[in-house]
Q: What sequence folds into this?
């Protein structure tokens, strides 16, 4: 197990006080805080080795290029990718999924084809498919969740037929914390000849991910949720499929040759990285990968689950509070969404902030799920490596203030 008490000293922002109280940051599912190791890597790149990559024969450019490509190697090792070239840098997980949607979906789907996703998806794994469906005539269909907030592949067997060409599924729900059996679903997808994309925005920061064992064909995630900076994401894909896939953006750096009326593409991964890439952000993501690798991702997951178990126990003492997500902590990550009838989620978040506790409130970019749950919004506490049991205690104490203010105690 990791020691979050010692880890916290690496995160300068945790020294802040909010409304005169110790900052209790419980919104890492939206974006994580950054350790000094990541912050320092950004400063070093801008102050010592900044120059555009892949374009200069001079020292600074060569240094920046090597740092950028070393970051790619770090991410590839982190995922156990077959080769570094399977790692494509994007600006975010959303951009990574859109790259797949437009590069693969737009060029392979046709009328009558289906894209299979789930009702618990983030909008980034729904809205692009709406757009592609209008362009291609394909249809979007859904896996439903069970009464205990899970996806049951056996019960959904009838969804998997020859019309399904793409399966696009979250590896961990940003609302429920649910971790679907991705490997099993990937096998089911491949049995019908479908390609599978995993939205790993919540999964990759919180659990060990070996893409060979995962079984999916593509994986998207972002840097800012895993201790890295904003402005950097990753699309991992199987090399043979990346070779088949069309680029979604055109411009500099992604070409082999450009003639008046035709262009040819650079090799993978560069054919998907048009223009000046976010190379400083990529280097900082590499520093974040180093930090997490030093902790051990199995340890990160166990820490999250231990805190979640404690939180579920403590939150059960709050009057009228209802938790949206699995009660079995072995089936979920460290995201806990809850609602209190009679108190709007935004009011909960505002009162908690007065107590120094930062949580998320709203529909969490998951409106289809909210409608399925019969809710308009939830409050959400999410844990990471720097959180301690005292943070859970502060959350519960602050919720006590809220219930008393609304006369629910």
A:
């Amino acid at each position: 197990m990791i020691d979050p008490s010692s880890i916290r000293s690496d995160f300068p922002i945790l020294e802040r006080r909010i409304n005169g109280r110790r900052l209790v940051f419980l919104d890492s599912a939206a974006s994580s805080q950054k350790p000094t190791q990541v912050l320092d890597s950004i400063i070093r790149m801008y102050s010592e080795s900044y120059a555009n990559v892949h374009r200069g024969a001079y020292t600074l450019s060569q240094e920046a290029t090597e740092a950028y490509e070393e970051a790619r190697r770090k991410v590839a090792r982190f995922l156990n990718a077959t080769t570094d070239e399977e790692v494509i840098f994007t600006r975010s997980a959303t951009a990574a999924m859109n790259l797949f949607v437009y590069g693969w979906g737009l060029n392979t789907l046709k009328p009558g084809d289906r894209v299979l996703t789930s009702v618990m998806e983030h909008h980034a794994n729904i809205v692009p498919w709406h757009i592609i469906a209008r362009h291609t005539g394909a249809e979007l269909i859904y896996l439903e969740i069970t009464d205990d907030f899970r996806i049951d592949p056996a019960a959904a067997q009838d969804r998997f037929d020859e019309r399904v060409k793409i399966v696009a599924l979250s590896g961990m729900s940003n609302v429920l914390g649910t971790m679907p059996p991705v490997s099993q679903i990937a096998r089911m997808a491949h049995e019908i000849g479908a390609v599978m994309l995993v939205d790993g925005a919540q999964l990759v920061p919180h659990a060990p991910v070996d893409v060979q064992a995962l079984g999916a064909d593509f994986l998207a995630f972002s840097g800012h949720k895993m201790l890295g900076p904003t402005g950097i994401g990753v699309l991992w894909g199987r090399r043979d499929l990346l070779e088949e896939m069309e680029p979604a953006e055109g411009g500099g750096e992604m070409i082999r040759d450009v003639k008046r009326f035709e262009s040819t593409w650079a090799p993978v991964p560069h054919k998907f990285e048009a223009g000046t890439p976010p190379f400083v952000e990529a280097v900082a993501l590499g520093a974040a990968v180093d930090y997490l690798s030093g902790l051990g991702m199995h340890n990160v997951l166990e820490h999250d689950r231990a805190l979640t178990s404690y939180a579920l126990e403590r939150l059960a003492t709050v009057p009228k509070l209802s938790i949206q997500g699995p009660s079995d902590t072995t089936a979920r990550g460290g995201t806990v969404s809850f609602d209190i009838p009679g108190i709007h989620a935004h009011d909960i978040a505002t009162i908690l902030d007065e107590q120094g506790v930062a949580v998320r409130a709203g529909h969490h970019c998951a409106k289809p799920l909210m409608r399925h749950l019969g809710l308009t919004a939830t409050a959400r506490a999410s844990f990471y490596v720097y959180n301690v049991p005292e943070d859970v205690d502060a959350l519960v104490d602050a919720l006590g203030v809220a219930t008393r203010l609304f006369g629910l105690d």
